[in-house]
Design a protein that fits this description.
By secondary structure, the chain is mostly beta strands. The protein has a domain at 6-81: SH3 type barrels, CATH 2.30.30.100. It has strands spanning 22-27, 32-40, 46-57, 60-71, 76-81. It has a five-stranded antiparallel β-sheet with strand order 4-3-2-1-5, with no helix packed on it. Strand 1 and strand 2 form a beta hairpin. The model is unreliable at 87-99 (pLDDT under 50). InterPro entries: Lsm1 (IPR034104), LSM_dom_sf (IPR010920), PTHR15588 (IPR044642), Sm (IPR047575), Sm_dom_euk/arc (IPR001163). It is found in: Cytoplasm; Cytoplasm, P-body. Belongs to the snRNP Sm proteins family. GO terms for molecular function: RNA binding.
């Protein structure tokens, strides 16, 4: 039996190629997290640095800063690299979409 060496890590379906890159992680409950992957294990548990949660309502979205975030692997549905995306370089969102027209306050019934 032969063991995989360090050169074989990038040939596998490992998250190693995503280390220190900006990622979008879709969770089982529908949440979308963005951050820089700092660590992971064989169960796809992951540590995101500078994480934020993107909340989308209709055509609008906002990013909620979370900081350092640990994700349990069984909740991960999809992981993908973000190219040129906003928000993950710091703990605070850089840009938000601006609504068209006036904002209205909803009144409780």
């Amino acid at each position: 039996m032969s063991w995989a060496g360090p050169e074989d890590v990038y040939l596998s379906t490992s998250l190693a190629s995503y280390l220190d890159k900006k990622l979008l992680v879709l969770l089982r409950d529908g949440r979308k997290l963005m951050g820089i992957l700092r660590s992971f294990d064989q169960f796809a548990n992951a540590v995101l640095e500078g994480a934020c949660e993107r909340v989308i309502v209709g055509d609008l979205y906002c990013d909620i800063p979370l900081g350092l975030y640990i994700i349990r692997g069984e909740n991960v549905v999809l992981i993908g690299e973000l190219v040129g995306e906003i928000c993950v370089d710091s703990f605070y969102p850089v840009e938000h979409r601006r609504p068209k027209g006036k904002l209205r306050t909803l009144k409780a019934p």
